[in-house]
Design a protein that fits this description.
The protein contains ten helices and 15 strands. The chain is elongated, with a radius of gyration of 24 Å. Helix content is 27%, strand content 21%. The protein is an alpha+beta fold. The strands form four sheets. The protein has a six-stranded mixed β-sheet with strand order 3-6-5-4-2-8, sandwiched between helices. A five-stranded mixed β-sheet has the order 11-12-13-14-15, sandwiched between helices. A two-stranded parallel ribbon has the order 1-7. Helix 1 packs parallel to helix 4 and helix 2 packs parallel to helix 3.
Length: 432
């Protein structure tokens, strides 16, 4: 059997990733490590290539969020940029943002070999390596894996210290999320663990430049695919699930990330001044028909004709929930700054709005939407739409960019805007 001619990847720092991304997009590559001006200029080029529109904002964090959102990714302050890190004052674009953009646009995930062992020496770290891979700042190869993040593909290599399957490639999985702060230690959460029907001996792979003492090694996607086939995984199974949008950053339930976000939001309340209309629209409003999304067949999937209005696949339900809770917190404090008092929390009542506010005998029934991106695109339940059509005290407030102190914005939307907005059918309920 001929050896697998593998490729070890090295030195994929921000500059290298920016060059690769520029090549995929067909734009002029720019270096991104010399300060905010060059990084922002480069992101402007990326945004223009993705949207055919020019970004006007000069803030690095804001333009990073816009560029990621244009690729259907959610901006993650602290990981995509250094936003929120108290020790660092100069805005900086991180390699993670460039890697996420490159993976999403090229459709090719980053791939790694992870060293594992069932020996007593490795037991403290690797009791459950099928679902968890722990590492700290002493582990060689950690930087590329942290840069790649969720959606990466991994091949397990059982080292020479193992008691079984010594020096063999034994399984594959993909990274669901990475827990931990930017200083570590970290825990990669892994999904789709699949054992190879046939172990692939270390000697069957020719990987120039590899040091098998290093715990984490980045390889090319072709090398990953060749190892999968050699391990007995048929070609159709090479992709272990779709490339994820990489929203599961930080710990899996979002608590460490959200704690930092909450702190950053409370430190600056200058953007919490909202204007509540003195008079709301009265009477009954009528909505037009909802749009039914059409799809087109591709080689690998069925893609919606309208990507903005099409249903979105939730990558991290806990993060989405926290975004909603943050939005409720922001809206509550914004109304209180205007002299309103929250008289009832109706979030669990299922009545078509979240909060009741009172001031001077006036009552508002407020529906809150927490949006991680910058576009005013969100789901509306039938009951919420009914309120918009019929309830003169109903109002919707949307918080866009809710996870970033630099990009967040509150939008007060009256009934007429909701009823008159373009709508799409999210699902069908069938009765036979």
């Amino acid at each position: 059997m001929a050896k697998i001619q593998g490729v070890k990847l090295a030195g994929r720092d921000s500059n290298r990733l920016a060059y690769e991304l520029a090549s995929v997009l067909g734009i002029q590559p720019r270096e991104v490590s010399r300060g905010q001006r060059i990084a922002t200029a480069y992101l402007r080029d990326v945004y223009l290539a993705l949207t055919d529109e020019r970004a006007d904002d000069d803030d690095l964090f804001t333009i990073a969020a816009a560029a990621l959102e244009s690729a259907d990714l959610t901006y993650q302050p602290g990981w995509d940029t250094n936003e929120g890190r108290e020790r660092e004052r100069r805005p900086r674009l991180e390699a993670r943002a460039l890697s996420r953009l490159l993976t999403a646009i090229s459709g090719t995930p980053r791939c790694f070999i992870l060293n594992v062992t069932d020996s007593e020496r490795g037991a403290a770290w690797e009791t459950d390596h099928e679902s968890t891979y722990r590492f700290d700042d002493h582990v060689t190869g950690r930087v590329p894996l942290l840069s790649a993040g969720p959606g990466s593909r991994v091949i397990y290599y059982s080292t020479g210290r193992s008691r079984a399957n010594k020096q063999q490639f034994i399984a594959a999985a993909h990274v669901h999320g990475i827990e931990g702060d930017w200083d570590g230690p970290w825990t990669a959460r892994l999904n789709g663990y699949t054992e190879f029907p046939v172990g692939v001996p270390w000697a069957d792979l020719d990987l120039p430049g590899a040091n098998w003492q290093h715990a984490i090694t980045e390889i090319s996607f072709d090398t990953y695919s060749a190892l999968m086939r050699a391990g007995g995984i048929v070609a159709g199974d090479v992709e272990l699930g779709a490339i994820e949008s990489q929203s599961a950053v930080g710990d899996e339930d979002g608590s460490d990330f959200i704690a930092r976000v909450r702190q950053a939001l409370r430190e600056d309340e200058s953007d919490l001044d909202i204007e509540v209309p003195e008079h709301l629209t009265q009477g009954v409003l009528l909505s037009g028909p909802a749009k039914v999304i059409s799809y087109r067949e591709t080689e690998t999937s069925a893609d919606p004709e309208d990507k903005v209005l099409a249903p979105k696949r939730t990558q991290n339900r806990a993060r989405d929930k926290e975004a909603e809770l943050l939005a409720v917190d922001l809206v509550t404090r914004a109304f209180e700054r205007q002299g309103w008092v929250m008289s009832a929390d109706r979030q669990r009542d299922g009545i078509g709005y979240d909060l009741e506010f009172e001031r001077g005998g006036r009552v508002l029934k407020v529906e809150v939407k927490g949006i991680q991106g910058s576009q005013l695109v969100f789901n509306l339940t039938p009951k919420e739409l009914w309120r918009a059509e019929t309830d003169p005290d109903w109002l919707l407030v949307a918080a866009t960019g809710v996870l970033s102190a630099r990009t967040r914005k509150l939008h007060v939307l009256g009934r007429e805007r909701i009823v008159g907005a373009e709508k799409a059918v999210q699902s069908f309920r069938v009765r036979l």
